[in-house]
UniProtKB/TrEMBL annotation:
InterPro entries: Aminopep_P_N, Creatin/AminoP/Spt16_N, Creatinase/aminopeptidase-like, Pept_M24, Peptidase_M24B_aminopep-P_CS, X-Pro_dipept-like. It comes from Mannheimia cairinae. PANTHER family: XAA-PRO AMINOPEPTIDASE 3. The keyword Protease applies. The keyword Metal-binding applies. This is Xaa-Pro aminopeptidase.
Amino acid sequence: MDLAYLAKMPQQEFTNRRESVFEQMQDNSALLIFTETEKRRNSDSEYLFRPDSHFWYLTGFAEPKSAMLLVKKEGKTESIIFVRKKDPLMETWNGRRLGIENAPNALQFNAAFDIDDIQHILAKKLENLTACYYARGLQSWGDNILFSTFDNMVENRKKVPNTLIDWQPMLSEMRLIKSELEIALIQQACHISSMAHIRAMKQTRPNRYELEIEGEIQYEFSRFGARFPAYNSIVAGGENACILHYNENDQPLKEGDLLLIDAGAEFAYYAGDITRTFPVSGKFSTPQKELYDLTLKMQTEAIKLLVPNSSIKAANDKAVQILTEGLVELGILKGNVEELIEQKAYRQFYMHGLGHWLGLDVHDVGDYGNERDRPLQIGMVLTVEPGIYIPKDADVPEQYKGIGIRIEDNLLITEYGNKNLTSGCPKEIEDIEQIMQSA
Ligand code: GLY
Ligand code: MN
Ligand code: MN
């Protein structure tokens, strides 16, 4: 394990991304991005800090209360970073700061300024520009700074940029197609996540609590250098699996129930996102097996269609066809398959999408097209996560009530089709049972 991976991120990658942004900016414009500030949890305790994904993507800088300004004027470009100044007393209490003097060299920026002087610098840099790229509503502290800067400029009879352009579509499109370095980091997040699920399978027993298994997962993440989960881990025994974002994780596991775990590591700020569902006792019952096989078939057939120029929609249509046929066969739905699909009868048992983009954010940025029909391209990374959830009070044969199943993998779209980045995590019934029983 190399915990220094973040310090070793090649700055050139971030610089190249800023170059690409400069190329897309119109002349006589500036682009401004803030990161997050630290957030109070209670009293004088804070949540552990994690930078804004867009800001990280363009700077590789992970300190709170920072901002980045790119200026393109008369064909010339200037990159500026605003950071907290060094402060020995604060650093003794709360940790090291890069500081203004070190920032330009360390981060390959033209200049750095004190974040506390940002209004003053902005007023100078934005004067007489025609456009400002800015995403309003993401960080209120950033909105306050920019719009009070504009107010001050107007009061002082300075010309403010009269066009505000949202930079989100531009940056989201860039982030949607992953670079080789990004793919390597996501692969590592997926690898760590796979290990954690295998550990969970081995550690699960009747009467252990959901949160104990969550702890086993977190331990495996930490062991491989991922301090954070990419999202709150879902460890849902029995019918808790029918609550899609269940996160109480406080119930004992019951013999005879399934356990659904949706957990992914965040490695170097990149997310893995895996779901596995397995029996608490180590052996699937017949009704559990029937629904599991159906979910797995939806997933394996969908994966075959998640290839260049196909779409999430095409794959989901196939999954829905398989699901509806399967539910009719099991007596859970009654009627004609085509009519049931038309009526979306399956929605009561499969109420979420097939998958989403994956990257710096677990639900990553990027346009999906109409009804998720955007053609897939090489370099995209996405999840494929069909599920079947039968509530306890559903009007279905008794043996299926209270069962929730989801199987989720992460795919990279490649010239050959796709690569399953989470194939190290077992999902065939025999493999899961074998791992659990050998533990
Ligand atoms: N873990 C959130 C999701 O699967 O989308
Ligand atoms: Mn998930
Ligand atoms: Mn997901």
